[in-house]
Design goal:
With 303 residues, the chain is an alpha/beta fold. It contains 15 helices and twelve strands. Helix 12 packs parallel to helix 13. It binds 1,3-dihydroxyacetonephosphate and iron/sulfur cluster.
């Protein structure tokens, strides 16, 4: 009997399928992926792919984004119920009220959001391009949702604009407190502190580097430091270890784990490929209007 990995390899060839995996999924899933990356990289790869089937090893908004960008392809989620709580933390009525209040408002929607929230946005962003895109927009007033922490970070980086912050949050990043960071720094005084902008402002204030998951990984790779304190989901440890073996990596605290991402296993990827289960379907009107915001993101990120 072939191993799970061998069965997946065979099915991928047979069905012309590719596996896209986010850095936060378990190592056994990253190992079988064709592409591993942050949200921006994976959405570009999803758009460019010529496979017939895209298996998205990630939470549901990621599969939805892949489908929005690739309507003709079959997009499968190994665990469709794996969800990101923050993706739902904004509401249509508040967006409508903001649009009434500001004539020139741009609604900027973090890619960590449901397809229906994306339909209400002018443009999407990821953590690696949010600052660049908000700067590039002609609008003076920006309503940034759902993540209030990333919004506050963007507001600080783009002080020339009025960035209105929504109050959504990522539970994984929000639970890291400045006190946890200071304690961890006492244990590891030589470690550089690398952090994701979904953390709170007072945690970001203690950082040596702030960036998306792939930016954190590249920073560690380029740095001459030997030790890093990592302020994001610990799934990124695998890639840092691969790129720069021998570096010491520490989480700030226990439990820096995304529940949804950790639901994906190699077994679930295999059974999804075997049965072609977990297919992402979206109503065409929702798909089309959400596509506008994602296409705008890809266009402005290229500019
Ligand atoms: P990245 O855009 O850095 O991949 O972040 C995704 C995410 O879910 C962070 O919580
Ligand atoms: Fe959502 Fe946070 Fe998990 Fe990212 S880490 S998918 S923002 S819950």
């Amino acid at each position: 009997m072939d191993s799970v990995k061998e069965q997946i390899e065979k099915l991928k060839k047979e069905k012309n399928a590719v596996i896209l995996a986010h850095y936060y999924v378990p190592g056994e899933v990253q190992e079988i992926a064709d592409e591993i990356g942050d949200s921006f990289y994976l959405s570009k790869k999803a758009k460019e792919s010529d496979a017939d089937i895209l298996v998205f090893a990630g939470v549901s908004f990621m599969g939805e984004s892949a489908k929005i960008l690739n309507p003709a392809k079959k997009v499968l989620l190994p665990v469709p119920e794996a969800d990101c709580p923050m993706a739902h933390m904004a509401d249509a009525e508040r967006i409508a009220r903001m649009r009434e209040q500001y004539d020139d408002l741009a609604v900027v929607c973090y890619i960590n959001s449901t397809a229906s929230l994306k339909t209400l946005a002018d443009v999407c962003v990821t953590s690696s391009n949010a600052v660049k895109i908000v700067k590039a927009l002609p609008n003076q007033n920006i309503y940034f949702l759902p993540d209030g922490n990333l919004a506050a970070y963007v507001a600080e980086q783009v002080p020339q604009k009025n960035v209105i912050c929504n109050d959504g949050f990522c539970p994984v990043h929000k639970k890291i407190t400045p006190n946890d960071v200071l304690k961890a720094k006492e244990f590891h005084p030589n470690a550089l502190f690398l952090v994701h902008p979904e953390c709170t402002k007072d945690v970001l204030a203690l950082a040596d580097f702030i960036g998306s998951t792939s930016e954190i990984i590249s920073f560690a790779e380029r740095s001459t430091a030997e030790e890093f304190l990592i302020g994001t989901e610990t799934g990124v440890f695998r890639e840092i270890h691969l790129r720069c073996p021998g570096r010491a990596l520490y989480p700030v605290m226990e439990g820096q784990c995304c529940e949804g991402m950790k639901m994906i296993t190699a077994e679930s990827v295999l059974s999804c490929l075997q049965q072609e289960s977990g297919e992402v379907t979206l109503e065409e009107n929702i798909r089309c209007s959400a596509a506008h915001a994602l296409d705008e993101m890809l266009r402005l990120a290229r500019a």
